Amino acid sequence: MSFSALARFAMALPGATQDIKWGADWVASVGGKMFLVGGPHPGTWTHCSFKVDDHRFLELTGLPGLAPAPYAARYHWVAVSDAKALPLAELKALVKRSHELVAGKLPKKLRLSLGIGA
């Protein structure tokens, strides 16, 4: 699976928007808060990062091809440097969960306006 396919999946999630940050990183956000970062942009991605549940952080960062995300590890973000490090279904589930974790912290009124359940 390519990281660009993961980006397409992320953009199909409720309320997802995209932009470029730091001059070279593609970012998916919900309610203005990032849930997936990939890069470099433009070009073929070499990595992506996303938020994970606290209890999964150590497990995932111990796998080959995954590591604590630079500058964001304290917020339980992991960096994936190998698109084949995890099966496609699991990568999609982790990105979906990242979206849920970030969206869950948004104010209820904003979540509802984005079409994200009560």
Automatic annotation (TrEMBL):
Gene Ontology terms for molecular function: DNA binding
Highest taxon of source: Bacteria
Keywords from the named record: DNA-binding
Keyword match NADP: no
InterPro entries per the UniProt record, alphabetical: YjbR, YjbR-like_sf, YjbR/MT2646/Rv2570-like
Protein name as catalogued: MmcQ/YjbR family DNA-binding protein
Species in which this protein is naturally found: Pelomonas candidula
Lineage of producing organism: Bacteria, Pseudomonadati, Pseudomonadota, Betaproteobacteria, Burkholderiales
